[in-house]
Here is the input.
Amino acid sequence: MIRLDGKQTSATLKKEIAEEVEKMVANGQKRPHLAAILVGHDGASETYVGSKVKSCEQVGFTSTLLRYENTVSEEELLQKIEEINLNDDIDGLIVQLPLPAHISEEKVTEKIDPRKDVDGFHPQNMGRLALGSPCFVSATPHGIMELIARYNIETSGKKCVVIGRSNIVGRPMSILMSQKGIDTTVTLCHSRTQNLKEICLEADIIIAALGKAEFLKGDMVKEGATVIDVGITRVPSDKTKSGWKLLGDVDFAEVAPKCSHITPVPGGVGPMTIASLLFNTLKAAKKEVYSK
Ligand code: NAD
Here is the structure.
């Protein structure tokens, strides 16, 4: 069984990005610049945005964090996004979700210029993804594809089961895994799927993204399968200082012995997500996706 080490792989990816940034700067170009908007004081969102900003520093990007109180109006937020869209100094923009109920996430997502949409949530990027055209691939699915590629996991002709159909993980994952060049045969499962166990038992590759701690058990996985665990659920723990620990969607102790490859939680998909956001920001700065 091989552990897919997201921590190490993301460090490699970040190193490659940092080297690219130094080349750009040596050529007289400006550093890639990521702007992040954070509304309110949600603990998890603060942590995520904090690590994104810190990672920008690590690879030599410029970053700007714009904070708003929960009371900010939708109009003010949309105006700020428009301002950033028009600011040539900023290459990528992310708005940390979730947003307060009075702000439409759809409107906010659609307001971001697709050329700066480094989260890849804009319908134009999602549409391009479905068409197999150049686009920003959302960070978590992109990170998973990097892990699969960098560990040389065979995909062509294999059966892949994706559990979860969210717009940020499951659905884009199912599209990517069926793309030409990857060539798996994909089954996308969700909360209404029947006979999930039987479907999983057929899979060569399982991508679990449903957000239910230790859902995937040993008897749902065939010998030699590759298992990618996207889930992150905080559960109480008396063994940690913080009083909680993170669990994935996979019962690691039961599943790992059957696998050819598996991602741990933490240290698997999570670190790859941030590295992929940086990768997208670099692509935005280099105008690699949209030429103007
Ligand atoms: P979501 O809640 O938006 O979607 C969950 C999906 O799982 C839904 O499509 C639902 O139909 C499906 N589902 C729920 N119960 C099911 C069941 N019993 N059987 C089959 N399908 C079922 O979640 P999301 O935003 O896609 O996130 C999923 C998990 O991944 C969460 O734990 C989240 O925290 C984690 N996540 C991790 C990263 C990372 O960087 N590692 C990034 C994004 C999300």
Observations:
- The pocket of nicotinamide-adenine-dinucleotide is lined by residues 140, 163-166, 168-170, 189-191, 193, 196, 209-212, 230-233, 269-270, 273 (CB under 6 Å).
